[in-house]
Amino acid sequence: MQPARAKETAWDPGDLVRDKWPGAVTSVIAGRRQPPGELELLPVVDPSSGATLVEVADADEAIVDQAVAAASAAFRSTWGRAEPAARGRALMSVAGALRDASEELARIETLDSGKPLSQARGDVATAARYFEFYAGMCDKLYGETIPQTSGLAYTVREPHGVVGVVTPWNSPLAQMCRSVAPALAAGNTVVVKPSELTPLTSTLAAMLFVAAGLPSGVCNVVPGRGPTAGDALCRHPSVKYVSFTGSVGTGRAVAAICADRVIPCSLELGGKSATIILPDADLAAAAEAGVSAVVRNAGQSCFATTRLVTHRAVHDELVARMVDLFDTLTIGPGIDDPALGPLISAAQANRARGYVERAIRDGASAANAARHDLPEAGFYVAPSLLVGVTNDMEVARDEVFGPVQSVIAVDDEEEAIEVANASAYGLAAGIFTSSLSAAHRHAARLEAGQVQINRYPLGGVDTPFGGYKQSGIGREKGLEALRHYSQIKTVILHLDGPNAR
After folding, report:
1. For the chain, percent helix, then strand, then coil, each to nearest 5?
2. Per the residue annotation, which of 109, 196, 265, 268 is the catalytic one?
3. CATH 3.40.309.10 residue ranges for the chain
């Protein structure tokens, strides 16, 4: 693992936030920040200290209606009619604006979410890359021709209209751009509902987009709670497609609303991703992957591989390697760029600790040493490497969303596949082996939307991402996302005459 960087010069984190938001964080509609009015104000807390940074106005139905109206107007008047190449140039300008403001955005994201600064910098770079990638795709969303005996048929891809995007708190800027960039590339306009826990970079980005030349109303942001802003957005009659990332329970509610309205949606939900480690694996790489799963966002990632399904022949060596890596992990405020930052809230920290306590009660044990160096303030949880875990344990079934890694021992490849697939989730999976045939054989049998071989994580903005089973519906990233953010129209033409074809 990377060692912690030197602690940065002392500064007041609140200064940066107060400079950007002298009052409450509010919705951004048609490029303008809205006054908080009589909306309920919610605290935005720095997880590294537990201190309130600023307050955010919880968008209500009226605010959401204004945002959707602005998006509808922009779709009809400008963006929906724009030439694809013009849309591409605008998206490329947005990418440049994100890169120009990258350090400021990264610091704000770190304060907002608690993640280490280097991880926040990576997220901002990824956010910009989404816009670069889809900028090049705007004029390449082709249809196809279909031969007919009496004429011609062809298909075209058209936008849905206004797209509602509901994002989680763990990677707010990158998750926002992951959906917004392809939605805009396909010709839609968007209203984004970020989590009330981490609304800062999403609202700031909406202002940056307009400054970069994106027409006002094309991207609007309404921060707030799910039952208020999120529900109003999904139910709005002018929203024609919903992209949701979050928990399975909330995903079911979103899907029910969309089903009742008979509109399409994509759902990127939970994960309990298994990685199979065979006897011929590169154990150094496998151990690195297992530790990285708890380092990234302190394990608060649906994508994290938190079930290491390990052949008994290499179990002890793998665990020993991971213990060594766990012992090197530094823990502290995200702005100091340690290996591990805090969890998002006190409730989430208590939840993660509860899973560890119950796993040990159920027969697992912690292979790594206890930590006694956690900061007193903030929402920190010591990383845990659990061994003796079986697939029927709660910690192996549920998404912990914390720095908890589980090792499950198996006797052969067949058992490894059975254990890996015995989950309600199917977001991603991994395989470590030196055998090319074994890698492909296992990849074909794993029930997951993505399979990574000999490194975890892998992939980027160009590789489709989404899950099997309760991990979701639809795909983000890559060209596949454009297919979801557009709809097919078929045109069939009859031509008279014997040679019509």
Report:
1. 40, 20, 35
2. 268
3. 273-460
CATH code linked to domain 13-269+474-486: 3.40.605.10
Q: Which tokens in the block code for residue 296?
A: 């990234």
Residue ranges of the chain assigned to CATH 3.40.605.10 = 13-269+474-486
Query: CA nearest 245: which of 189, 306, 326, 171?
Result: 171
Closest CA to 55 of 182, 196, 163: 196
Domain 273-460 has CATH 3.30.479.30: no
Could you tell me which of 51, 58, 38 has the C-alpha nearest to residue 12?
51
258 among known catalytic residues: no
Query: Is 268 an annotated catalytic residue?
Result: yes
For 393-444, what is the HEC assignment? CHHHHCCCCCCEEEEEEECCHHHHHHHHHCCCEECEEEEECCCHHHHHHHHH
**Catalytic hit among 302, 399, 447, 476:** 302
Q: Which tokens in the block code for residue 435?
A: 């055998």
The tally of CA atoms less than 13 A away on the side-chain side of residue 259 is 7
Rounded CA-CA distance 252/242 in Å is 13
Q: Which helix (H) or strand (E) holds 2?
A: none
Both tokens of 232, joined, read 């109003």
Which residues of the chain have a pLDDT value below 70?
A: 1-14, 497-501
Residues β-bridged to residue 245: 268
Cα–Cα distance, 127 to 146 (Å, whole number): 37
Rounded-to-integer distance, Cα 36 and Cα 397, Å: 42
Do 58 and 40 form a contact (C-beta atoms < 8 A)?
yes
Pairing label, strands 162-166, 189-193: parallel
Nearest to 143 by CA among 135, 130, 152, 151: 152
Residues 212-248 as b or e (16 or more Cβ within 10 Å = b): bebbbbbbbbbbbbbebbbbbbbbbeebbbbbbbbbb
- Strands 486-494 and 365-366, by their bridges, are unpaired
Maximum distance among all alpha carbons in the chain?
A: 86
What 3-state class would DSSP assign to 34? coil
CB 407 within 8 A of CB 318: yes
> Can you tell me the distance from the alpha carbon of 206 to that of 200, in angstroms, rounded to the nearest whole number?
10
- A 10 A CB-CB count for 369 gives 11
